[in-house]
Amino acid sequence: MTISPTTIAVFGASGATGLALCEQALAAGHCVIAAVRRPQDFPIRHERLTARKADVSDSAGLADLIAGTNAVCSTLGAPYSRKEITVYSQGALHIVAAMRETGVRRLVVVSAGLTFRPPKVYGPVMDWIVIPLLRGRFGKTLYEDMRRMESLLETCDDIDWTIMRPARLEDREGVTDYTNDGDFPLRNFTARSALAAAMCAELGPDGHIHQRVSPTTR
Predict the structure, then answer these.
(1) The three-state (H, E, C) secondary structure of 156-200, written as one string
(2) How far apart are CA 192 and CA 178, in angstroms?
(3) In the Cβ-directed half-sphere of 18, how many Cα atoms lie within 13 Å?
């Protein structure tokens, strides 16, 4: 599939998935605005990439950053924590507001395969022990905020959103073969490069508008 060059804003660009997405978007011929807290430290240098200072916890300046882009991608993330997490829901809220202000419609965000209770397809240990512990204890506040983000986007009929729900993320060399499993990942892990490739593919004409997609590595 050929994807016409476009200009995208990437929030969370300094994270591992964000960096992979920036690299793949540039390789595909796109122009990239990397929205980061410390643009002077952003490691990628390219004539079609601009690093811009942004903080999604504060909506100020986001519209100016997004203006003129064709799409917005969010790879915002947070580690497991017992404290309340708001980066996903507040980030989406402020990004959507900026998109509405500037007329940008296309949005691709990263959620997770465990945001909602997945089907029991991973084996007894994962299904009955590991996943309940991750969802109900270690990642409880994280998945709660991802659900808030997804619930918010469900109300945004004027935004062409796609929610990516990868499996456990791993670092792998190069872009691995992957498949889109639908609402929930049916395999155990997703290479970050595969997630980035799936997000880049969403920029084309066959994007999954108002759908959830679960890219997983084969």
Answers:
(1) CCCCEEEEECCCEEECCCCCCCEEECCCCCCCCEEEHHHHHHHHH
(2) 11
(3) 25
How many Å from the N-terminal Cα to the C-terminal Cα in the chain? Answer: 20
Measured CA to CA, the distance from residue 162 to residue 202 in angstroms comes to 8
pLDDT (mean) for 202-214: 92
Question: Residue 5 — pLDDT band, cuts 50, 70, 90?
Answer: low
Q: What is the pLDDT of residue 18?
A: 97
In angstroms, the CA 103 to CA 151 distance is 22
Q: Which residues does residue 35 pair with via DSSP β-bridges, in sequence order?
A: 11, 52
Q: What is the pLDDT of residues 96-116, one digit of tens each?
A: 999 999 999 999 999 999 888
